[in-house]
Amino acid sequence: MVSVPFLTSAPGKVIIFGEHSAVYHKPAIAAALSLRTYLLASRDNDNTDTLFLEFPDIQFSYKWATSDLPWHLFDEHSRERQPPADEELNPELVDALNSLLSKIDSRIQYSAAFMFLYLLVSLCEEKDVAGLTFTVRSTLPVGAGLGSSASVSVCFASAFCYLGGHIQEPTLKADDVTVKDSEQCLLIDAWALMGEKCSHGNPSGIDNAVATHGGAVMFQRMESSVPSIRTSMRNLPPLNLLLTNTKTPRSTAALVANVSKIVTEFPKPSGLILETMEAIAREAYTLMLRPFLDKQSKDRLMELIRLNHGLLVSLGVSHPNLERVKLWSDELQIGQTKLTGAGGGGCAITLIDDDAATPEKLQQLEEKYNQAGFETFKTTLGGKGVGLLTEITTITSEKLCRLHNRNEIEAAVGCSALPQWRYW
Ligand SMILES: Nc1ncnc2c1ncn2[C@@H]1O[C@H](COP(=O)(O)OP(=O)(O)O)[C@@H](O)[C@H]1O
Ligand SMILES: C[C@@](O)(CCOP(=O)(O)O)CC(=O)O
Ligand SMILES: [Mg+2]
């Protein structure tokens, strides 16, 4: 029997090349971010026939009588298995959850609660979770292209696999190096992909793969139930990336659906666009295998960023605010900019040209962004994947809900630097 409280945690990601084309089985390159989601499972009251959710980042607090959940749809055997990559959501569970959640009218809250319940009922029995409170806090912006949905999904999948007894406590410390994926990570990743399917119908799997395994990868979704190819890129060259959040809201589900419409209605031109994206990701991969980039390779990588953005624009997933981010960095000749993630708003990345971008120019750019209400981040790439913290004495759900910002959250959970964090 697992003892609570415990925390699970998983990183967000930045897609450097290949968003959207990744859905269509083309290779893409992404890296884990130092921004992360944390999920606390705790027993905060004596009420054992109720399940409590606290998701303050999306202003959502909810509870269910545990007996109202459709536990009967699964048995021990179905809870232990690893779903294949092409498994569809279980229609009976989807129906049962739709009726249970019918009173929630915010799309953001609905999809978070749906993903939570889908994974919970798929992986746990009633006795494993009765009376528990689940609290989510994230230092990632929600719905901005940095993979918050996947990091939440990995936190749920790992916590429920652990509570359901399908995985054991991890043993790896933050600086332990491994060469082989653990069985436990593969199980978490497979269920987190089901969580991403709850969030948007047709995920490539790149976001949950990075959130589970951490680091940087070249990722390619395969046809049917064949597992995706995930090639880890251990020695990513140092890249000076500026991340800018336009704060323009958008939903991955809607953008992926729009691209699907273009792919269906214009198969020839969209096929060529996707093939070109593949060529870009493959060349970028070859360049990024080098631990250091010479001037020529760096210039080429910047050109590839420019080309990739242009193709995403042609698929209709940019936004005037993303174009502003690009225009202003182009005007100051600071580097090359592309949208990242699903687009339609959210974040852009600028690969800074270290020779051209003086501190004055960078400051000018940041001021321009700030005036427009955009937020810039500096974060490190390639951090740890899914982790667990069990020795919790000071963190309660109430405390976690009251924290105001990224610094306070990281201080409370010890970020991933706390030596007690272990990784699967
Ligand atoms: N901190 C959080 N708390 C609860 N739900 C979250 C949180 N962060 C993300 N989510 C869920 O993920 C969804 C955002 O996913 P998505 O549109 O794919 O954007 P992205 O993954 O780029 O951030 C939200 O609508 C919400 O359902
Ligand atoms: C557009 C896509 O390539 C990435 C979506 O990422 P995000 O949810 O916007 O962080 C979709 C996918 O690969 O599943
Ligand atoms: Mg997402």
3D architecture notes:
This protein is of the alpha+beta class. The chain folds into two domains: 272 residues, Ribosomal Protein S5, domain 2; 137 residues, GHMP kinase, C-terminal domain (Alpha-Beta Plaits). It contains 14 helices and 13 strands. The strands form two sheets. Strands 1, 2, 3, 4, 5, 6, 7, 12 and 13 form a nine-stranded mixed β-sheet that branches. A four-stranded antiparallel β-sheet has the order 9-10-8-11. Helix 3 packs antiparallel against helix 6. The longest helix is centred in the middle third of the chain and has 22 residues. The radius of gyration is 21 Å and the shape is globular. It starts with 5 loop residues before the first strand and ends with a strand. It binds adenosine-5'-diphosphate, (3R)-3-hydroxy-3-methyl-5-(phosphonooxy)pentanoic acid and magnesium ion.
